[in-house]
Amino acid sequence: MDYLDDLVTSSGAAAYCLYASSDEPDMRYLTQFITHDPVPVIKKPGGKPIIIVPVMEVDRAERESTAQVITRQQAGYQEIIKQERDPYRITAALIQSCAHGPVVVPPGFPLALARALETTHPVILDSQSTIGQMRSIKSAGEIAHITEAQRAVEEAMKNAISLIRAACVKGGLLHYNDAPLTSELVKSTINTTLAMNGYTAKDTIVACGEDTAMPHCTGTGPLLSCQPIVIDIFPQSMDSGYHADMTRTVSKGRPSSAVCELFEAVSNAQTLGESAVKAGVSGAECYQKVRDYFEEQGFKTDTQGFTHSLGHGIGLEIHEHPSLSPVGEMLKEGHVVTVEPGLYYRGIGGVRIENLGVVTKNGFDRITQFNQEMIL
Hints:
alpha+beta
């Protein structure tokens, strides 16, 4: 918490303040508490974060949270509501009962609550998203959570690819159990596998044919033979809250020579990208090496080609610091990042391959253990 304390002190503030539910990763990171309703969190230099909860939540919060827990009544709620009825002003008064001065807040802090706080003390914006930067360096325990999530992803991917491999071809369509094999059925298999292992999945991608030229098209309808099928799985643990992320591109039968060329280039770029990742190297450098490689191979990028970043950090959010992009920051030991080059062309399709690993002083310690076979 030293970075947060230093920020508060250097800003001339009394405390750092959040107002969020545990859907907000910064709040969950600071308190380890799960709540669907937003609550105030106040972090003063040298002390534990303070979380203000309703009386009905205090026993659970004291058992589960790493923060100091107080009730709204202990923060003066009954006296405050004698003078104030506006909910934002009430919450501001609860916060000030602990902060006693100016507060630093993250970029996503509610504006209405900031305005209420400003009636008594300055509110200072943490434009650098300090907690997000803190979250980007993973502890051994966090890496273990991400690794567990990745193993669940690999089981789900194995089941999905097994369905496609076992399918027969009728009239250019894949069939399984005498019915067309659809994107929806494969996604259901993936999401069911994840749920059985304690993970929730949202917007799982199983896209086929020309749909694969749109990187985030989730896919729909029957799957085709001899066409690229992009499968991208990125669930969150119901228990720890941590994510994993993996993409594979497969085809039932040999696809066109153009798709095969895309796959070979992306596979080589994957190897190049992983070799570039290392503590002390910027995410921008890693991205540029892969982009330069693609262009050297004749895969020019404008509105098509390599149209997204090379990768991103992962943790309590599916996309977090650092970025492997044109503006990617310096990589540090303990960052956990994806490396996911892709090429996308209308009229041909798209190919993406994604692995996950830990940034070390020596390179990229890959967590992903799944093969990259395309033709099934």
